[in-house]
Amino acid sequence: MERSPLRIASLFFAALASFQAQAAVPPAVATIDRSTWPETLSSPALFDVASRAEILMFAHTLLQSEALDDAALADRLDLRTVNMPAIKDLRQQLWQRLWQNYNQAQQSCGQDASFCFAVDSLDDLRTQANNFAVAPDSFYANWGAPARVFDLIYLDELLRKAALSPQISSEVLKVSADEINGSDFNDRVFLLTFDSGPSIAVGSTEWVADFLRTQSINATFFVLGQNFAGRREQGEPGSLEALYKGQCVGIQGWQYRSHADWNDWEGSITRTTTVVENELPDNYVPLFRPPYGTRRADAGVFLGTQQMKVALWDIDSQDSNSQLTAEQSAQRVLTLMLLWRHGVIAFHDTQAKVQTALPWLLTQTAQAGIGWQECRQFQ
């Protein structure tokens, strides 16, 4: 039966609406209930036990993903096409870091042999990852299945970002060698960073900065020029200096929007730099954190003229994601700290969740033998 043009148009728009509705469903975000892990991180050796377990489980998941062809991987990531060279590059980087991290974590095997295997090379790690499983009668049995789910979702987060590059850049792959992400930190050393501040009204950013000072920790706050200028205009002289006392302040641009396709991206950076450096000359650090992690491929040329570097991250709290509670965000961060063993943690000081997540995280790691990077050394 011949269909009328009106009927065809109706079917087309219905299909389009259905596609848009499906596309609007956000991808799952990895989190795990840390209570499934049966031990507290009450010593450096127990931190290493948990770290070895996380590394082996993630390596197992990563290895399995390599069996997928291009079409199967695109289907798994819900993408039409994938950039396989970028995915290959990311996988190589992940394997190298997993091997380095496991090698660090196995140094304490003499104190606790849990998850210790004969691993003397990357090839050995791949072999152990291939055979890795948590037995149903294991002391760690309750952790095994949730950890596998976490790693499947988290790996897809990483692979999806690589698959979309270079059209959409992100934090998982550097655009230039001048960008920094904490990959060269010493083992067990982490840097806290906070994005999108300051809070428009007095409150959340003040809480974070005050809490850090009570813990004798400093961090890097990446501020939005619009918010910063607004707080300067409504506050007393010196109020921003008091707010960020002892902390480092970098920039995110004038507004929280992608600088990859913004015609005024250079002006966004220079305006924000001027207002921050003039107001806080002792706190300012020449670092630019691109909103969403997106930046132009040639951004490094302009940033070089400003004596500025792109500052990325490798542990994302996802605290601005409505899918996660504050507790889930904190547990995600701790799991990634165990996996990556060093790096840059990204929170948002404008999110109320951080007031729950940050104290929990510091309590859980207080005896784990980790250290917090001096923010001035991240440049």
UniProtKB/TrEMBL annotation:
Keywords (A to Z) from UniProt: Signal
Sections of the chain in a coiled coil: none
Pfam families reported in the protein's UniProt record: Polysacc_deac_1
Leader sequence residues: 1-23
GO molecular function: hydrolase activity, acting on carbon-nitrogen (but not peptide) bonds
Annotated GO biological process: carbohydrate metabolic process
Family matches, as InterPro entries: Glyco_hydro/deAcase_b/a-brl (IPR011330), NODB_dom (IPR002509), Polysacc_deacetylase_ArnD (IPR050248)
Gene3D superfamilies in alphabetical order: Glycoside hydrolase/deacetylase
Name of the featured protein: Polysaccharide deacetylase family protein
Domain NodB homology, first and last residues per copy: 184-298
